[in-house]
Amino acid sequence: MPETIAYLDHAATTPMRPEAVAAMLGFLTERYGNPSGSHSIARQARLALDEAREVVATALGAQPGEVVFTAGGTEADNLAITGVHAAREGARRSHPGQGGTVVCPAAEHHAVLRTCAALGGRLVPALPDATVDLDALADTLGPQTSVVSVMLANNEVGTVTPLAEVAAVVRQQAPDAALHTDAVQAFPWLDVASLAAPADLVAVSAHKFGGPKGVGALVVRAGTSIAPIIHGGGQERDRRSGTHNIAGIVGMAAAMRATVATRDATVQRVAALRDRLADGLLAAVPGAVETGPRRSKVAGNCHLRFPGVESEALVVLLDQEGVCASAGSACASGAMEPSHVLMAMGLPVTEANTSLRLSLGATSSDDDVDRALDVVPKAVAHLAG
Which of 55, 56, 266, 291 maximizes the CB count within 10 A of its CB? Predict the structure, then answer.
């Protein structure tokens, strides 16, 4: 392994913030109580849980009672869609005419896409920038729509969705439907409390903004009926049972507080790094193409395509040279599959399989960019040759 590593895969996961690590340590050792208990050690855990809930609620523009702690973004998405749909289906059985269909765009994260498919939902086409086609969305919605799920920032190409416009279409065409947004990739870069205000449900994941893996949150606005998908002791107001991961929740709250406090400065600094990286690679690699309009992306996303270069091979070669990145395609059962996001954007398979996502974060530096600018053009030239 090279002595110096340029980590440019923050969209996959981020390094833990020191504030999160410090907040968690006590709850991994002497403060081990179960917040569902009644003795003094349990009460310490309950107090920490309540304080963390207030931090998370404030960061997401919600009331503390609207926050449901989960095991991550995937569970939060599943709970939002399956839980609301199940509640509507239950209402339909006793009140015919309610219930209905789940709807989501074709460029959503698999946590949403596969949940939608499992419930027999409907897909809406995406535009060439990966945002939802609002006209097609309007045509798809109706009185029978139960849940509409549209992500705030795309996990692969970084495009930001105008959620207020989506909400206007949903309220007009399907006023009884719940609007869910996956804000997992948005939180490090965007004021989710404001931008996701029109949504009835908002999902986030701690490890995308310097918190620990295995913990997330779902905002369920007051008045939104939801059925649990995990049954047990009735924690989280019976919306998500299971003993609370206090250390993880406290770490997520600490990471959230730090992210919000430094977000504006981080966005400005990282956007400049991203622009230098993207512009440098576009200038250095003949034929390189940027995916999607940069002005519509979150600050940390740099997504490029290198015609004639297979992306998985490029990722392997970059790793050998100390640059951590990800491909725009996934390998399943040994067979290459093109990125569903790029395909939804209208790119042919041959182009979709030449993509590279370089994603920056709060810890990214000029040295990371310099190393990528040195290594990526050489790797592309080697593979193209």
Answer: 291
- 179 bridge partner residues: 148
pLDDT tens sequence across 311-370: 999 999 999 999 999 986 444 434 467 899 999 999 999 999 999 999 999 999 999 999
How far is the C-alpha of 196 from the C-alpha of 61, rounded, in Å? 8
SS3 305: strand
Residue type, 313: A
Angle at 325 between CA 319 and CA 329, to 5 degrees: 110
- Model confidence over 80-115: pLDDT tens digits? 999 999 998 765 555 544 458 999 999 999 999 999
* Strand 201-205 to 326-327 pairing: unpaired
Cβ proximity of 364 and 300 under 8 Å: yes
pLDDT at site 285: 97
Q: What is the pLDDT of residue 329?
A: 46
User: Catalytic residue at 331?
Assistant: yes
3-class state of residue 215 by DSSP: coil
pLDDT at 336: 62
Catalytic residue among 104, 116, 324, 331: 331
Element (H, E) at 290: strand 289-290
Give residues with Cβ within 8 angstroms of 294, minimum separation 6.
275, 278
Residue 48: CB atoms within 10 A of its CB come to: 22
Of 100, 192, 184, 108, which is closest to residue 150 (Cα–Cα)?
108
Q: Residue 46: which H helix or E strand, with range?
A: helix 40-60
What are the beta bridge partners of residue 103? Answer: 122, 148
